[in-house]
Amino acid sequence: MHQHLVGKPLEGFAEFAMAVAAQGAVLLKNSPQALPLDESDTVAIFGRTQINYYRSGTGSGGAVNVMSSCNLLDAMRARCGTRVNEGLAQHYAQWVSAHPFDNGGGGWAQEPWFQQEMPLSDEVVRKARLTSNKAVVVIGRTAGEDKDNADVPGGYRLTQQELDMLGAVCLHFNHVIVVLNVSSIIDMSWANAPQLRPHIGAILYAWHGGPNGSKAVASLLCGDITPSGKLTDTIACSLDDYPSTPCWGDSAQNIYQEDIYVGYRYFETFRPQRVLYPFGFGLSYTSFAIHSLSMKRDTDNPLCFQITARVDNVGAKYAGSEVVQIYLEAPQGQLGKPSRVLVAFAKSRVLQPGEHETLTMTVSLEQLASWDDSGATENPNCWVLEAGLYRFWGGNSVRHLQPITVEGEAGYTQPMLRILSCHEEALAPTVPFSRLRPGKRLQSGVWLEEWEEVPRRKTSLRDRIVARLPAALEVVGDKGIKLEDVAQGSAAMNDFIAQLSIEELACLVRGEGMCSHKVTPGVASAFGGTGDSLLEKGIPLAATADGPSGIRMDNGAYATLMPSGTLLASTWDPVLVERLYVMEGKELQQNQIDLLLGPGMNIHRHPLNGRNFEYFSEDPLVTGTMAVAMVNGIRSGGGIATLKHFACNNQEHARAQADSVVSARALREIYLKGFEYAVKQGGALAIMTAYNPINGHWSASNYCLNTTILRDDWGFRGIVMTDWWAKMNDAINGGMATVNNTAAMIRAQNDLYMVVNNNGAEINSGDDNTVAALADGTLTLGELQRCAHNILSFMLHTQVVKRGDKPQVNVPTIAADRTLFIAEAIKIAAESRLRFSDTLAIYIEDDGVFDLLVSVNSAAMPLAQTATNLLFNGKFVATVQTRGTLGQRVTQKLCRVRLEPGYYRVETEVINPGLNIDWLELRNVGASVSR
Question: Known catalytic residue: 723?
Answer without folding.
Answer: yes
